[in-house]
Design goal:
The complex is a heterotrimer of chains A (about 130), B (about 210) and C (about 500). Chain A has about 130 residues and is an alpha/beta fold. Helix content of chain A is about 45%, strand content about 25%. Chain A has a single domain, classed as 3-Layer(aba) Sandwich (Rossmann fold), CATH 3.40.50. Chain A has a 5-stranded parallel sheet, with helices on both faces. Chain B is mostly helical and about 210 residues long. Chain B has 3 domains: about 60 residues, no CATH class; about 55 residues; about 60 residues, no CATH class. In chain B, about 60% of the residues lie in helices and about 0% in strands. Chain C folds into 2 domains: about 450 residues, no CATH class; about 35 residues. Chain C has 21 helices and 2 strands. In chain C, strands 1-2 form a two-stranded antiparallel sheet. The relative contact order of chain C is 0.18. The chains are: A alpha/beta (about 130), B mainly alpha (about 210), C mainly alpha (about 500).
Amino acid sequence: MSILVGYLPTPVGEAAVVAGIAEARLRGEELLVVNSVREGALVDAAAASQEDLARIRSRAAEAGIALTLLDSSHRDDLAEEILGLAIKHDVSLIVIGLRQRSQVGKFIMGSHAQRILLQADRPVLAVKAGTRG
Amino acid sequence: MKHKAKGAATETAPGPGGTAAASGAAAGVSGPQGGTDVEAVADEELTPEELAARWEEDAAPPAGPQANFWASLVTLAIGIAAMVLSVQLDLGTPAEPRPGMWPFLVSLVIAVLSVTQLVVGRRGGRDGEKFSKLSWLAAVGFATLLALVALMPLLGFEIPAVLLCFVWMKILGGESWRSSILYSLIIVAAFYAIFILGLQTTIPHLF
Amino acid sequence: MDSLQPVLDGFGVVLDPTNLLYCLIGVVIGMLIGVLPGLGPAATIAILLPLTYGVEPVTAIIMLAGIFYGAQYGGTITSVLLRLPGEASSVVTVFDGYVMAKQGRAGTALGIAAIGSFIGGTVSIIGLTFLAPVVAGFALDFGPPEYTALALLGILLVATISGGSKIKALIAAAFGLLLATTGRDIFTGAERFTFGNLGMADGIDFVPIAMGLFGVGEILYNLEERHRAAAVPVKVANVWPSRADLKQSTGAIGRGSVLGFFLGILPGGGATISSMAAYAVEKKRAKDPSRFGRGAVEGVAGPETANNAAATSSFIPLLTLGIPANATMAIIFGALLIQGVTPGPQLIANDPELFWGVVNSMYIGNILLLIMAIPLVGVFVRILRVRGAILAPITALITLLGSYTIRNSMFDVLLVVIFGAVGYLMKKFGFEPGPLVLAFVLGSLLESNLRRSLLVLGGDVGGFFTRPISATLLVIFVVVALWPMVKAAFDRRKSSRHETSDNQEVKENA
């Protein structure tokens, strides 16, 4: 069994990874980290650099977790991508980062996290930035 | 990767010759929807040959012998038709060339080269690209452009342009409903400001 | 060259505020589309042709030229920071430039590319300044037969040196010649291939063809974009190359300038071939070739210098002989024709302000490039974040609405769309659109010169071969045309000889 973490190179994403590692240790499961990049542009702020990925690998190694980095991209729907991966790998838990947003902000701009929370068929752990692991 | 596409319009890059196998690196090429998951690879150490080979892999497959056959047939038909029409325009003699002479020579060249290409390219080659499922996107794009041309005299450019932007972003580009509608309106508003208010051109407009 | 006066007057033209502004606009747009995937300088120049209607010829060409050599540098940015060449002429820069960036030397790579581009461009302009009047003076003695042979050779070279199927490129060129015959025949007034359509009576206009084939065609082609993974661009930390880097690159820059200058003059040559040749030369000359592909600064300096030098020198055949050296030059040729300027040997004499204005603008343009190169990188990287799905309809609308403004004619817009489809299909089936446009712009001039030649020679085609210049050109034409077949025959004989000797070996060892 494994845990899926949706990663972005932001404080929220880092917090998700930290939480994911902690959960993996608790449950004794494998960790899957996915950084899904949006197709269509050459540059994407959400894309993780090699340094980011290296940092994640070393953290996982320190904690003694088995880690797999998933390489993926999506056209428009990040939520669907993550949920699809969760089903495909039959994970026991999804870990995502949650940004602080007002209710109005969420309405206008939408939220991938919200859709994942509402549509997931398995437990979801939503983590805020700055949370201790 | 389509980086070669740009160069092809002006000067094509003679394909980087390279070794066929890309060592070690697992290439993650995914389809139009969703992604495949492959181990994130440390592919920083690809040598130029491997890089060129990777680009070659990622490039579209060549058009193939059937495409060559039909294309050559079409150009042959055009060449022959033009030859016939040119003869009707009166060829004249080398000393006194008439309007039909030059078109006749040119269309003769087209016809002869088409036959040559039919033979030479019968086993396909490395040129062209096969049509894929994604080619429908180009067809839809073309159709919307025609629709714009048809509707512009009737409705002005604003509404057809908004529709075109929306279709291109939502259907061809996979953007969300929200983004597509929002950006379409903003873009056409900007065009209105620039073309109608700013440059004062006489493009047919409704508002 | 009688005096330096016209050259100096040219600077006066350039320093005119409008011209300076258009030079700046051209260089910035050029860099931008060099960075952005999907549109190249030819397509952009085609799309912006309607802009040239409202300004002076000099101003228009200054801007279009700026787009052309600006794009050579723009493509370098994505090569170095993202390992993706933005232009075909920046492909080789990826090999060492990206590695340098990964080593933390992105600024060095970009800086050397900018400096090399500047020097290469400047050397090329100086070469142009001295060579162009000589060539033009020589060509003033050309009669119709010489011009006919030259135009034919030019078309053949451009069609055959491009990659891909040469026969298909020639078919495309011939088709361009055919399209040029539509409309009224200048000599006799007869209507050709108009099919009774009034819109076709004056022939097909150049601008819709160029905008359609290159502009819309490219846009439709890019709609079919396959999966493209976004990457994280390498951060540009250090700003400028060190003195040691500069010293190491001087040789490469010098060689690149000369190589690019000469390869750019050749029709069909150009920036792409120059950059590849420069890379090969540097690698061969290096005392330690294994450095290449691992961050050798010469691997960036040489090609980048060469491609800018070539982009500049490719103006020479256009401005002195009236023969475009590549598709982009063909479009600029068309732009000049729209303005009522016929490029050719008489251009320097008849319109020195235009000629020297354009040439000298390239100095200014190269300086602007050098100044803006590094500071604008951050802006361009941010612009790269805009998704293609949003850029595509914008460029489509610019093209279509722009094409309407030429003659306030929906028919033009329709032509643009139709030729867009033609351009797309041509690409898919392996026909180059470049030779078509090139042959199209040269078509009517070629035909009128051919007919005039026949009248002058009294119908005696052999007369082409008695005149020394046209004879030489036609012989070269025949050699270039037949070369592929000769080569193929040679290769077949060689391989069959190998087979028989292999068979003999097998028999002996059996």
